[in-house]
Specification:
The complex is a heterodimer of chains A (about 650) and B (about 375). Chain A has 26 helices and 24 strands. By secondary structure, chain A is an alpha+beta fold. Chain A folds into 2 domains: about 55-245, Penicillin-binding protein 2a (Domain 2), CATH 3.90.1310; about 305-645, Beta-lactamase (3-Layer(aba) Sandwich), CATH 3.40.710.10. In chain A, a hairpin with a 5-residue loop joins strand 12 and strand 13 (about 305). With about 375 residues, chain B is mainly α. Chain B has one domain (about 15-365). Chain B has helices at about 1-15, 15-35, 45-65, 70-95, 115-130, 145-160, 160-180, 185-205, 205-215, 225-240, 250-255, 265-300, 300-325, 345-365; strands at about 105, 110. The longest helix of chain B has about 35 residues, at about 265-300. The chains are: A alpha+beta (about 650), B mainly alpha (about 375). Chains A and B meet through helix 1, helix 2 and strand 1 of A and helix 7, helix 10, helix 11, helix 12 and helix 13 of B.
Chain lengths: ~650, ~375
């Protein structure tokens, strides 16, 4: 045979073999097709039944969220059992009909019904749709009796976040609410837990990782009507950690009450006079509609809403925050379920923004409470000492401008202790001009102003301690001496939060350590950075603060703490919000209380007690409260008294 | 210059566009299935699958410009290189406890045992191309191929990836068969394989044994290893003739069905589109394989013919193992459905195979006699 012939033969063999192989493949494929026919057509009924029935539904189990308790282990945020109602369109058949039948058994508003119906048309029919997320006990038992007639309707236990103290701790705890689509985008695993609630603000947000815990998983065997028969737990969920807060709920309650009352008396809401006042006043109506249940009669007989502002009580040794009150407040419980538009609207229409945590995010000019900063800066720099005196004639001229002291007649010749005692402005104008804004800024920073404190509340503000570079960077113009003068009495650009003022006071009272605030209860004394204040300078400033409440001319001499509790030292502050206009003056209006609320001065007080070996520092801001000495000082005194009276923390 | 234009024109004219079209349809079907697998979303699978399909098609077309004679020259070096990669991989895996199946290059995970299939096909085709026809009847001629098949087989078994290893052997044997091995040797080797089975069994990893046992009796362990097969059969069976509808496969959508984006994608298609959908898919594969076999009759050299048949067999084995697995006819070995399952390596391998076929048909036509 020639080579060519052999080649041809082998080509033919290959062709035959390929054909054979192709035939084999066809045969195998028809065999596979037969198998598919057997499964999908011949045994279709059997597998359909298996598919519909007795299925193991793999589910993620939400962990129990860690609880929040106060320092005495009283519950601030816990979990209550609640029952959720679902409907599965696949088993329910006609969803509209099923909902109509349901609404004869339990409360179901039109909005929910329409919503569920719309969702049942969109998604796959085997996916359960949430109808209600908290059934009452009575609804539950009524449903249980009739459940046999309600195919596709299931209810199951879940845990709902509750805040037993409600509005009292609203700004501290914050709240949880259902996972948002934004959160799911950031963390896909959250999408597996449609009923999970996550912290949105406050401690709930700041400590979310600790509080949430780790989800578990289970398999649920479901019958043909979609009802769970058995549950197999594969992984137990791990509960989140409980967190003990430094807060003392008793103190919180007391402080809230005295802040809200201010210097006014609560009125009987039922009297015709009060009802008439409400009817005539839109603002009062708004307060009442957002849950307010108290109205006051002020010193000139007008019916008004409770005071707004902030109070912080801090342990000067540990930094623990025993009370953090921001008024007005809100009830976090309204957020845990589906938030009602009505509630949301009311919160937003409230004239005084109850969602703002004034303690950490409310910015106020510190006013005269800033004078300790100026005094310390000047003494440490050697600009003044205990004996340095300046004359106050009631005003000071600088260039073309005249800067007034709050006391028009002038304080005469005063030293630094007297200037603090009587809150002489002119003394601090003179001192500040010699000290310079840079040194004042440095001292403010050391005392904790101008930076966020880092407490476990999101959205904290840092405030502003102005200086040369800041002015140039933000305003594009240079700093002027006149601005140093204004800053020296804590006005102008200077802005602080009530929490920062409490930290400043705690550091002054502590004397050696740069105390940092903590909302969590502490078992051990934390390590603080040293404060490095000269003891001599500190002694002088403390003497001035002592005289504010003890001195013959002290601005808060009327509100000292009893000797038995060790007395209180502090500093008043009254911050002008708007000058009294010429027209008002001519109309005879000179008192704060006679002006519109929004134009009145802010009232501030910072203080600590006892005078020797201080335990607690306090800062008080009463928005448009009038004067620091008459409005803020008594609140501070009462807060410190209550804190010291509570034993067991000696 | 004109020579270049002519060669480009020739390439374009001779490129088997119907093969590319069929591959494109399969990738599209895959994207839609993956869209459903992620509950109606292009991420994370469907979008990337489509992009990979486009990249694969581009690779196939680039290969069309490679002179097929070059592939013949490179067949052995490519084979040795892929063996070397497998050995290196095994060495890396031996140190740690991780399974040595994957290699990571610039963020892409890569399974070298897949392209090994192409290298083995080319090497075997080259080998039989070199043999004068009269030597095909000598048994000595078949010793080198046995070594050429056994080495990669053992390396892949060691990884351990039994499914790929067996696919490799089956495909290789098909090439030997087509090359013209006498029938007496075919019978001999069947007897040989059967007697070697017990030895192979003792070499299996425990999890591989468990899979085989599970396959033999899936009902015994419904929630363990048999879970996948049981769920797959329920999903397929409940699909019926026409299926439950796109995105409506409750077994798949409720996550009863594991690996629905990779090995069990055929099951999901069966649940949502029924027997009709499944047969449609099988029909597409038959058309694709048939087209490649037709091409094998049109090309000239033995090398080209055997390569084409090898690629056709490779695709068929992928499909067969996968479908047999999800219908409970074979144990769960971890085999993708080519061009439809999510996973880059298998898709790339198939497209490279199609590219080699294209190169063969473009550059290796029979000389007129």
């Amino acid at each position: 045979m020639s080579k060519k012939v052999k080649h041809k033969i082998s080509q033919r063999v290959m062709g035959r073999r390929t054909m054979l192989l192709g035939g084999g493949m066809l045969l195998v494929t028809s065999f596979l097709s037969g198998r598919l026919y057997q499964l999908q057509v011949a045994q279709n009924n059997r597998y359909k039944r298996l598919s519909d029935r007795n299925q193991f539904d793999q589910r993620v189990v939400a962990p129990q969220r860690g609880r929040l308790v106060d320092r005495e282990m009283r519950l601030l945020a816990g979990n209550a059992e609640s029952y959720m109602l679902h409907i599965t369109p696949l088993y329910a058949g006609n969803v509209d009909e099923a909902l109509a039948q349901l609404s004869t058994i339990i409360k179901l508003d039109e909005e929910t019904r329409a919503d569920v119906l719309a969702r049942s048309r969109k998604g796959p029919s085997f996916r359960p749709i949430l109808i209600r997320d908290s059934l009452t006990q009575r609804e539950l038992s009524r449903l249980a009796i009739r459940s046999a007639y309600l195919p596709g309707v299931t209810f199951e236990k879940s845990l709902r976040r509750i805040y037993p103290q409600g509005a009292l701790t609203g700004h501290v705890t914050g709240y949880v609410s259902p996972v948002t689509s934004r959160e799911i985008e950031d963390n896909r695993a959250l999408g597996e837990l449609p009923d999970l609630a996550t912290g949105k603000i406050g401690i709930e947000y700041a400590l979310e990782p600790e509080l949430r815990g780790v989800p578990g998983s289970e398999r649920v065997e479901v019958n043909a009507r979609g009802r769970p028969i058995r549950v197999f737990r594969d992984y137990e969920p791990q509960a989140g950690k409980d967190v003990r807060l430094a807060l003392d709920i008793g103190l919180q309650q007391h402080v809230t009450e005295i802040l809200r009352r201010g210097q006014s008396e609560p009125v009987d809401m039922a009297t015709p006079e009060v009802q008439r006042a409400i009817a005539d006043n839109k603002e009062l109506k708004q307060h009442l509609s957002s849950g307010e249940n108290m109205l006051l009669r002020d010193s000139i007989g007008k019916i008004t809403a409770p005071e707004s502002g902030a109070v912080v009580v801090m342990d000067v040794r540990t930094g623990e925050i025993l009370s953090m009150v921001s008024s007005p407040t809100y009830d976090p419980n309204i957020f845990t379920e589906r938030l009602l538009t009505r509630d949301w609207r009311r919160l937003n229409e409230h004239p005084r923004n109850p969602l703002l945590n004034r303690v950490t995010a409310g910015l106020y000019a510190p006013g005269s409470t800033f004078k300790m900063v100026v005094a310390l800066a000047a003494i440490e720099a050697g600009i003044i000492n205990e004996r340095t005196r300046f004359g106050c004639s009631g005003s000071m001229d600088l260039g073309n401008a005249t800067f007034h002291c709050w006391f028009e007649d002038g304080h005469g010749s005063v030293n630094v202790v007297q200037a603090l005692e009587r809150s002489c402005d002119v003394f601090f104008y003179e001192v500040a001009l010699k000290t310079g804004i840079q040194r004042i800024k440095e001292m403010a920073y050391r005392l904790g102003l101008g930076f966020i404190t880092g407490v476990d509340i999101p959205g904290e503000k840092s405030g502003i301690i102005p200086h040369h570079d800041w002015k140039l960077a933000t305003h594009g113009v240079v700093w002027t001496p006149g601005e140093t003068v204004v800053a020296s009495i804590g006005q102008g650009y200077v802005l602080t939060t009530p929490l920062q003022l409490a930290v400043m006071t705690a550091r002054l009272a502590n004397g050696t350590k740069a105390v940092v605030p903590s909302l969590q209860a502490l078992d051990t004394l934390p390590e603080f950075a040293p404060l490095d204040l000269s003891p001599a300078a500190l002694r002088i400033v403390r003497k001035g603060m002592f005289d504010v409440t003890h001195g013959r001319l002290g601005t808060a001499r009327a509100h000292n703490l009893s000797k038995g509790l060790g007395g209180m030292a502090g500093k008043t502050g009254t911050v002008q919000v708007k000058r009294i206009t010429k027209e008002q003056r001519e109309a005879g209006i000179t008192k704060n209380i006679e002006r519109p609320w929004k134009e009145r001065d802010h009232a501030l007080f910072v203080g600590y007690a006892p005078v020797k070996n201080p335990r607690y520092a306090v800062s008080v801001v009463v928005e448009h409260g009038g004067s620091g000495s008459s409005m803020a000082a008594p609140i501070a005194k009462e807060a410190l008294r209550r804190a010291l009276m509570t034993e067991d923390r000696a | 210059m004109t020579g270049d234009s002519i060669s480009i024109l020739r390439t374009v004219i001779r490129t088997p566009w119907h093969v590319l079209l069929l591959a494109g349809i399969l990738v599209t079907v895959g994207s839609l299935a993956l869209y459903s697998a992620s509950e109606g979303s292009w991420s994370p699978w469907a979008g990337r699958h489509a992009v990979r399909g486009a990249v694969g098609a581009a690779i196939m077309l680039v290969l069309a410009f490679v002179d097929f004679r070059l592939l013949r020259i490179w067949a052995y070096p490519l084979y040795l290189a892929s063996i070397a990669v497998l050995i290196v991989l095994l060495g890396l895996g031996a140190g740690g406890s991780s399974v040595a199946r994957w290699i990571s290059i610039g963020g892409f995970s890569f399974q070298p045992s897949e392209p090994t299939k192409i290298a083995v096909i080319l090497a075997l085709a080259r080998y039989f191309d070199d043999q004068p026809p009269e030597r095909l009847s000598s048994i000595l001629t078949y010793l080198p191929p046995i070594v050429m098949i056994a080495v990669p087989f053992l390396l892949v078994v060691e990884q351990p990836d039994l499914g790929t290893a067996l696919a490799l052997v089956l495909g290789s044997l098909a090439i030997v068969f087509v090359a013209g091995i006498p029938w007496r040797y075919v019978l001999l080797s069947i007897v040989g394989v059967l007697s070697a089975l017990p030895v192979l069994w003792s070499q299996l990893h425990p999890y591989q044994k468990a899979r085989v046992m599970t396959f033999l009796n899936p009902e015994a362990d419904k929630l363990g290893a048999g879970y996948q097969i049981t769920q797959s059969k329920i999903a397929l069976g409940s699909g019926g003739l026409f299926g439950k509808g796109f995105l409506m496969g409750s077994q798949s959508q409720l996550n009863y069905l594991p690996e629905k984006q990779t090995d069990f994608v055929f099951t999901m298609i069966g649940e949502e589109f029924g027997l009709v959908g499944n047969l449609f898919i099988l029909g597409l594969y038959l058309l694709l394989i048939g087209a490649i076999i037709m091409i094998s009759y049109r090309v000239g050299s033995r090398f080209a013919r055997l390569t084409c048949v090898g690629v056709a067999i490779m695709i068929f084995i992928y499909v067969f193992v996968n479908v047999a697995m999800v219908t409970g006819l074979l144990p769960v070995v971890g085999a993708p459905l080519p061009l439809i399952s999510y996973g880059g390596t298998a898709m790339l391998t198939v497209f490279v195979g199609l590219g080699v076929v294209t190169s063969a048909v473009v550059h290796d036509r029979p000389e007129p006699e």
